Amino acid sequence: MSRKHKDFLIGAAIGSGSTALAAERGGVDFLLAINAGRLRAMGAPSIACMLPIFDANRLTRAFAEEELLPRCKVPVLLGCAVWDADWDVERLAESVSASGFAGVTNFPSGMHYSRPMQQLLSAAGRGIEAEVALLRAVQDRGMTAMFYCATRMQARLAADAGIDMICLNLGWNVGGMVGHRRRASLEEVASVAREVGRLVKKINPETRFLLEGGPIETAEDLSRVNRLTDIDGYVGGSTFERMPLEASIADQIDRFRHASRSRNARDMQTERLLSWGRQNGFKGRSPALIEFLRKLKLVQESDGPILLIVERGSPEATVLSALQKEKDGSVVGIDVGAEEHPGRARTLLFGHRDTVEKRRPGLADPAVGLLTIRHVNRLPLTVQRRLARALADGAFRAPGTWRRLPVLPRVALIHEQQADQVPGMPISGLDEGLLDIVGGNVLRLPPLRERVEDLFDLLEDRKPSLTRTAFTAAAVQRLSAHAWPGNEAELDAVIGDLSAMARSGPIPEDAVLARLAASDPVSGAAGRVARGGEKERILDALWRNGFNRSRTAESLGMSRKTLYNKIKRYGLSG
């Protein structure tokens, strides 16, 4: 260990390789391998190191040589006692040097015993004087020595011998689960440290004076002591090893427990959301449906106009009913695409000068709770901009008068999206100003092909006899692989008389194919639709399940082997 002075030394008295590596990453200057640290790692308090339960030198040296020296780059000082039956100071110092340690500290030490016990040890040649002799022998071999002391007299012995570092031990650490109770204040120990430190520096100015133990539990405690007295460093035992470990493990377990509770809470929230969805007519529990219900509930509880994006055949009426549920007024719809002239839709919205006094415009009708406008992008841009202004202002001018009427119902703009249209693409013909008024109240009802996991929930809701077991495995695969371009409307057309067929046994694949062909809203070509739909269905399921074939096969209702063969057939393996 370098003798070059640093501004402030930090030492860590530890008992395991993991703690040593953590201390090294934290920037510790040196490590002390002591039996108290090893016992702390076993769960015992530091004071257990003074009990005759292990051979202290053998216990300490074993873990230090196996766990510290091969891994740690900072200097390691070995804690050595002078109480071995065959103790020999020169042989021990030579052995420590040969093993690769940077130095030695006197631990466990007689300083922890009572004065009468210390006198008995000194009389037997195994007292504080022997510990100083060991450290002097260590220094004579070019290594570093640190002397633990508890009194002025002990510090004087070490300073007279020229020991590199003297660490005043303030007693066993307080704090933590197995720590001692506080007996002295920070100010009291600072006063003692100031007195001992001055003595040490007076005898040998080159000796580094450090503190350890006592009431110093935190960096703030050390900072207070450091302001009251001059010290060259600090050695942390329990403060670096036991107490942070207790706190961090307890906190980490608590965080993991909280994560478990959070997951349970999320599961409960999801179940409540699905229950709310069932009450409003939504069946299933697919991720796409859950996400939609979450957004739907937020939009239902908020104010302002809504943009609902659906595909042909989707249950938009169910969505509108959920939006208006528990609110006053009825749901009234205006279909711009069905009106003979756009002017008719404008009149329904804003009224006409000839009838405004007799019939309230849709936007100002108190009997209307939710006013829906289908194909809103087909309205002339002038009408769309007028609608945007009315929604922004909350009022509009009645035709033929200067009187302003309040906008009373909530407005839902409905856009029918094509099945092959990429979600998120701009809506052709829709005024940007009107879209800005909608803001975040945009709902996209996921098409049935994105909710294929809900298929049999929907079937059973429509026909209780059409459970999954009512179909053969091939029929289940065919239904699951179908693209459902007509969504729930197509599903209603498909099930037809299938429930009657279920009475005579599982419904076969050919019966399903026949129904798909009859209900195909595009071409009636069952084979082409089914085959093309199957490829797209498999590809979509692979994406949704992270390309995990087991989960994909399960979601599609087929075996893993069948899925593998279909992946090869459709060229999806690349």
From TrEMBL:
One of its GO terms (biological process) is regulation of DNA-templated transcription. Keywords: Two-component regulatory system. Residues 282-500 form the Sigma-54 factor interaction domain. The keyword rRNA processing does not apply. SUPFAM superfamilies: Homeodomain-like, P-loop containing nucleoside triphosphate hydrolases, Phosphoenolpyruvate/pyruvate domain. It comes from the Bacteria. InterPro entries: Aldolase_TIM (IPR013785), Homeodomain-like_sf (IPR009057), HTH_Fis (IPR002197), P-loop_NTPase (IPR027417), Pyrv/PenolPyrv_kinase-like_dom (IPR015813), Sigma_54_int (IPR002078), TIM-br_IGPS-like (IPR009215), Tobamovirus_resist_UPF0261 (IPR051353). One of its GO terms (molecular function) is catalytic activity. This is Sigma-54 factor interaction domain-containing protein. The lineage of its organism: Bacteria, Pseudomonadati, Pseudomonadota, Alphaproteobacteria, Rhodospirillales.
